[in-house]
Amino acid sequence: MSYWEIFTWLTVIILGLGSIMVFLLFVRDIKIILKKFRED
After folding, report:
1. Cα separation values, 17 from 3, 14, 23, 33, 40, Å
2. Fewer C-beta neighbours within 10 Å, C or N terminus of the chain?
3. How far is 35 from 18, CA to CA, in rounded Å?
């Protein structure tokens, strides 16, 4: 494998994990927002 291929795979993995973490945080925040919205 060349350095370019390794760099590409690392970038894909980092972006994938980052997007999953952002999605999980987003889902958690949505639940909190929905609770506040229902209380109002």
Report:
1. 21, 5, 10, 24, 35
2. C
3. 26
